[in-house]
Amino acid sequence: VSADTRSRLETTCAILKDAEGWGARGVSIPTGILLEGPAGSGKTQIARTMANEGSLGFVKATVADLKGLYVGHAAGNVRDIFAKARAASPAILFIDELDLVAPARKGGGNDVLVQEIISQMLQEMDGIVDQHRQVFVLAATNLPENIDPSILSRFTERLTVPLPDLESRVRMLKILFVQAKIDSLFSGDYPLLGELSSGMSLRDISNWLALAQRQAVSRAVENGGSSAYKMVREDLLDAAPLVGVIA
């Protein structure tokens, strides 16, 4: 993320960590930030990092956690998730794919269920403010224009999380290579690999390594099994064009 975005997130973390102290000095406590950016750009990791660095509880909600199959079910799911976050407060409630959880209503047959989720979410988010609960809603989307406007209005900030820059991509590669026990093999190749990963998300980079590993595993199987496993530079070079096609 950019230095500005990082600074704003760090400031939010500092306020949440001592919400009582800041509130006593008249500082308004933030209630929600919407992270906007392409899939795989690290929005979930940002949420977890904020919780860890702020020593805050962390509750994650996905579409599957909140959607309901019948009237009344979805509202109960939303209430349960917010209750779980309140029980862990001070906490971050991370809602992934908000555009699918609370989509703008278009008059279709699912509008009753959508309205139920949106109404309950509005009630819960407004309740955080009214009851001075130390629950912070952090949501993620790659299609902000598809989110219901009333839900959008509850977020005090909207931050863009772009695809990783060269420095971030190289940092990610180094972490993955250490985990894969191949960092010593590619120490001189990071500038090239960083350029090859241009346009990739953090998830794409992880998939890239997985594809390269599969190629090395296939070669090892033909030569005796796991004892013959060895990744080489060409495995990564061959796998780069396949990212997003097979992975």
Fold and architecture overview:
The protein has helices at residues 3-17, 19-24, 43-53, 63-66, 73-87, 98-101, 111-130, 149-152, 166-179, 190-196, 202-222, 233-239; strands spanning 32-36, 57-61, 91-95, 135-141, 157-160. Helices cover 52% and strands 11% of the residues. Helix 9 (166-179) packs parallel to helix 11 (202-222). Strands 2-3-4-1-5 form a five-stranded parallel sheet, sandwiched between helices. The protein is α/β, with parallel strands linked by helices and 247 residues long. The two termini are 24 Å apart.
Give the arrangement of secondary structure elements.
Layout lengths: L2 H15 L1 H6 L7 E5 L6 H11 L3 E5 L1 H4 L6 H15 L3 E5 L2 H4 L9 H20 L4 E7 L7 H4 L4 E4 L5 H14 L10 H7 L5 H21 L10 H7 L8
Parallel strand pairs: 1-4, 1-5, 2-3, 3-4
Structural class: alpha/beta
**General shape:** elongated
Q: What percentage of amino acids are in beta strands?
A: 5-15%
List the secondary-structure elements in sequence, H or E.
HHEHEHHEHHEHEHHHH
**Quaternary organization:** single chain
Radius of gyration, in Å, reads 22 Å
Total count of helical runs of at least 4 residues: 12
The overall strand count is 5
Q: Helix proportion of residues, in percent?
A: 40-55%
Strand order of the largest sheet: 2-3-4-1-5
Low-confidence stretches: none
Reported for the largest beta sheet, the result is: 5 strands, parallel
What is the terminal-to-terminal distance? 24 Å
Overall pLDDT score: 88
